[in-house]
Specification:
heterodimer; B: 569 residues; FAD/NAD(P)-binding domain; six-stranded antiparallel β-sheet; five-stranded parallel β-sheet; 13 helices; 17 strands
Chain lengths: 226, 569
């Protein structure tokens, strides 16, 4: 065991209030690095049952630290990297959305906070254990090695189930956060929320042709596109 | 519309006081004031103007948590519901051990008409005589033919899109009544192709949304501009809600006064079988009594029951013992499928009129009559699937995996490739489903609250099982994968109240011994007490109830007008 790993374990243990007793460090599987971190409950005010719909505001303060936000931004760039269609999720500050989410004073968000804050600590612990550096200082290749153990539904490394749960939740939130931004909406091709006066024009000829090709393959009657 | 106050207008002596401003209350206010009758409308919630405070055309990213559902806004940040949802501050309710029930309320002018689904099918001839057909429940004291002209008038007034399809027990409207249907979406055409192949109809739906403008001096309403969810409230008046239609039209007559933040606690009587008015509490907690010749209850099935139960030791107008009994909701469950044939499909603006342009009406009446089904009443599917505005979660049919460039490819490929089949079925009244006063818990004005009892019977469970099985067959016919877990019907059926179709607590009947109200919603016991909300329903066909609440309220307030004119009340 590296010094850094020991330090991390102690830090996690201290933060979660659990002792290291019984943990055989030499034989501990990597999964043993996961600790649910004990968090002070969030006491900020919710927005209430009659908030302004025309001028919405987020009334609760953000709670993640600089280091956590940094790891989230790095993870976001790996999760949804730049390509020809849109920039990376980190560039679009998805870490800020995740911070808003986990800082919200609602039960679902607080459950996510436990998972995500613990998961961010786990990323560091895992990286230090395997590569002797925290996640933020690891190379992209090393970070991908960590992701590869937890990111694929049918290839989750045994013992890494909780970390995989964290990753799946982070992926879901990052997908939502990213594709609801203008760049994400342009990428995925949502064309609505734009008034069309008069009768709705209906599907385009291209959309109908695609539908009919599919229906014919299924042995179903194609639609008259006229 | 003119500003609402929350203190009584001293110079205004109403002929009629209406409790509640939603579908039934709004329609009754409209009918009475158009007939020149001085009417006072009491609303428990605050004043609300959808023209100025709706969230139309807002993006999910502009709201906290990308507009996701929270315990404050159960249907998402932008849902129009004010100070309500499954909980209302200061107005708890309880559920008896062993029962599961949830109660959706709002506290705003116009009530739940501000966010409702707008799905507006008519009840058919079978639906008014269910006992005659299968020996279960009770027949209505009216027939479809008696209500049909009122359906026509209601549809014309509120504006309903739809197409006459001539199907058994799905009545057509008279010519010229319905507004033109929008074209189907790609997803709806796909559902229709598979359904028809399996012998199941899929036809244009009926929704209370305008495809043609309605001109009115006090409530001009534009045609739908094919954007923004109706549940946010409609700032152009296209989607029907009491606040942009019936209430401003009633205000325009000069005969209506409205008091908001007025929580009605009880109906006041003279002790000789006559109602004299109602007591309400204002926002500051001060009580007031308003007097009128007639009291009209339109607080919603459960709040009307609560107020009447609190108005006399064993409940007012309860000589039958049926007050609060026969509580109904609609059965509900959902089956969703991922359809490979929809992957990577060409993009276009698929918002349409927000509502489903097509639906699957019940189609097995003949099989049911022949005894081939193991459940007695119908259900329909509300179908879904479109390129929807991304929010806090991006629905990809749980097909997304991994991370990186391939995840972005997954998002493009699977977006808009899911279809949903939402089952909505008829529940039959049973002795185990009712509401009563809780012996201990009280609300913010000190009145006992409702305690709910709930139990589904095999009628509902067998029906839900059939609905789930058939949805799976339709998804399979499209080569799709069902994403919804295969559950037992008792696990898959939504809890009581969750479909938000509470009905039946003051049901109509043909005699005083089996019902709370007569065929005009008039209390058998109290001659000047009339009920115009969903509590008068004798049965709950699977067809969403609001249109029928409106048509009954129109018919029954027309009857009240004639009684007032004759001096009978």
């Amino acid at each position: 065991m590296t010094v850094s790993r020991r330090v991390t374990l102690m830090w996690i243990a201290a933060a979660s209030g659990t002792a290291l007793a019984g943990c055989d460090e030499k034989d501990a599987p990597a999964s043993g690095l996961w600790k649910d971190i004990a968090l002070e409950p969030i006491t900020a005010h919710p927005y209430g049952q009659d908030p302004s719909l025309t001028e919405p505001v987020v009334p609760w303060p953000l709670t993640l630290g600089t280091a956590q936000r940094n790891v989230l931004r790095i993870a976001a760039d790996l999760m949804l990297p730049a390509d020809a269609h849109s920039p990376s999720a980190g560039t679009l500050h998805i870490d800020a959305f995740i911070d808003e989410w986990v800082s919200a004073p609602y039960p679902l968000q607080q459950a996510d906070r436990l998972l995500i804050v613990s998961g961010l600590a786990w990323l560091d612990a895992e990286s230090k254990s395997r590569f002797a550096v925290p996640f933020a200082q690891a190379s992209d290749t090393q970070r991908r090695q960590i992701f590869d153990g937890i990111a694929f539904k049918k290839k989750i490394q045994p013992g890494y189930e909780r970390a995989a749960q964290f990753f799946a939740r982070l992926r879901s939130l990052m997908l939502g956060g990213f594709y609801s931004l203008p760049e994400g909406i342009a990428d995925i091709g949502y064309m609505g929320n734009s008034p069309i006066p008069g009768p709705w024009p209906g599907p385009t000829p291209e959309a109908l042709a695609h539908l009919n090709a599919g229906l014919i393959k299924l042995g179903l009657k194609p639609v008259n596109s006229g | 519309m003119p500003k609402q106050g929350n203190t009584p207008d001293q110079g205004f002596e109403p002929d009629v006081v209406i409790v509640g401003s939603g579908a039934g209350g709004g329609m009754t206010a409209y009918m009475l004031t158009k007939a020149g009758i001085k009417t006072l409308l009491l609303e428990a919630g605050r004043d609300y103007d959808p023209l100025s405070e709706n969230a139309m055309l807002k993006w999910s990213r502009e709201a906290p948590l990308r507009a996701a559902s929270t315990p404050d806004k159960h249907f998402g940040y932008y849902d129009a519901t004010v100070n309500g949802g499954w909980t209302v501050p200061g107005e708890p309710y309880t559920v008896a051990p062993g029962s599961k029930f949830r109660w959706w309320r709002s506290r705003m002018l116009g009530g739940r008409t501000n966010h409702w689904g707008r799905h507006s099918p008519r009840f058919g001839p079978y639906d008014f005589k269910p006992h005659t057909r299968d020996g279960l429940g009770m027949d209505w004291p009216i027939s479809y033919d008696e209500l049909a002209p009122w359906y026509d008038r209601t549809e014309k007034l509120i504006g309903v899109i739809g197409t006459n399809v001539g199907l058994e027990n799905h009545p057509d409207s008279s010519p010229g009544v319905l507004q033109p249907s929008p074209k189907p979406r790609i997803t709806e055409l796909m559902i229709q192709a598979a359904a028809n192949d399996l012998g199941i109809p899929c036809v244009p739906s009926r929704y209370a949304v305008l495809s043609r403008a309605i001109d009115d001096a006090h409530a001009p309403r534009q045609a739908c501009f094919n954007a923004s969810p109706c549940g946010r409230g409609c700032g152009i008046g296209a989607a029907f809600q009491s606040t942009t239609s019936l209430l401003p039209m009633a205000m325009g007559t000069g005969k209506l006064r409205t008091i908001t933040n007025a929580t009605v606690s009880r109906v006041v009587t003279d002790g000789h079988g006559k109602a004299t008015g109602v007591e309400y509490f204002d926002k500051a907690g001060a009580s007031h009594v308003v007097k009128a010749r007639v009291v009209v209850m339109a607080a919603s099935a459960c709040d009307t029951a609560k107020i009447l139960l609190n108005s006399a030791p064993h409940g007012l107008a309860n000589s039958s013992g049926e007050l609060g009994r026969n509580l109904l909701d609609t059965t509900g469950t959902n089956v969703t499928g991922h359809i490979p044939a929809l992957e990577n499909r060409p993009r276009y603006n698929e918002d349409g009129m927000d509502v489903a342009h097509m639906y699957i009406p019940f189609w097995l009446y003949k099989e049911q009559a022949a005894g081939k089904l193991n459940f007695p009443r119908g259900y329909h599917y509300e179908i879904g699937g479109k390129f929807a505005m991304p929010g806090a979660s991006l629905p990809l049919g749980n097909m997304e995996d991994g991370y990186g460039l391939s995840l972005k490819e997954d998002a493009r490929r699977y977006y808009g490739a899911q279809l949903s089949y939402t089952v909505r079925g008829e529940m039959i009244p049973n002795k185990n489903s009712f509401c009563e006063l809780d012996p201990e818990v009280k609300d913010k004005v000190g009145m006992p609250v409702l305690r709910f009892h709930w139990k589904w019977s095999d009628h509902e469970l067998n029906q839900i099982a059939h609905g789930m099985k058939t949805a799976r067959e339709m998804i399979a016919r499209l080569g799709g994968t069902v994403m919804t877990p295969d559950r037992k019907p008792e696990d898959a059926i939504e809890d009581g109240g969750v479909i938000i179709h509470e009905l039946g607590t003051t049901r109509m009947g043909d005699k005083a011994s089996n019902s709370v109200t007569d065929s005009y919603g008039k209390s058998w016991d109290i001659d000047n007490l009339v009920v115009v909300d969903g509590s008068v329903f004798t049965s709950n066909a699977h067809k969403n109830p609001t249109l029928t609440i409106l048509a009954l309220a129109m018919r029954n307030s027309d009857h009240l007008v004639s009684r007032l004119r004759k001096g009978e009340v």
